[in-house]
Specification:
AhpD-like, 9 helices
């Protein structure tokens, strides 16, 4: 017998999932000026950058930071922007599956990891130089800013325990 044959069938109203945890704090409502500033910073950092590349970067940083809210949001945004499910699935193992990505995307992902995981040390020169080969200076500055911004959003999301699963892409840019 397979697991599907032995598992009880459930309906959406009667599913075996764990309950959704409560959010700790609605920081955006409590500090709306900070939230609005973050939204403006996020929008400014993204100007001139490819949306699909940005979503890959945001998903990868969110994977590293274990931000479920941002994973939900940016995976959905990436799919809405035309990204393939296959590339999103492979993203957590991009170093083992580089053939799914362009050299430019690989450089951005490598830079994302270096900027996100600072506990491993400074951003190595070779990582920065590889990114600089694929991005002009202004574009690189905005990419670094975008990586920094998604890391800030991730930290807010995981600290306040914002629950994933409710986001629906609507064409507006969100964290």
């Amino acid at each position: 017998m397979t697991n599907s044959e032995t598992a009880p069938r459930t309906t959406p109203e009667d599913h075996p999932y764990a309950p959704e945890p409560a959010s700790r704090l609605d920081w955006a409502a409590l500090a709306p000026d900070v939230y609005k500033a973050m939204v403006r910073l996020d929008a400014a950092s993204q100007q001139g950058l490819d949306r699909t590349l940005l979503e890959l970067v945001k998903v990868r940083a969110s994977q590293l930071n274990r931000c479920a809210l941002c994973l939900d949001m940016h995976s959905k945004d990436a799919l809405a922007a035309g990204e393939s499910a296959e590339r999103l699935i492979q993203l957590s193992a991009w170093e083992e599956s580089p053939h799914f990505y362009t050299e430019r995307e690989l450089a951005a992902l490598e830079l994302t990891e270096a900027v996100t995981v600072l506990t491993d040390g400074f951003v190595p020169d070779e990582v920065y130089e590889r990114a600089a080969k694929h991005f002009g200076e202004e574009e690189l500055a905005r990419l670094i800013a975008s990586i920094t911004v998604i890391n800030a959003w991730n930290r807010l999301g995981v600290t306040c325990r914002r629950a994933p699963g409710h986001y629906q892409p609507d064409g507006q840019r969100r964290p």
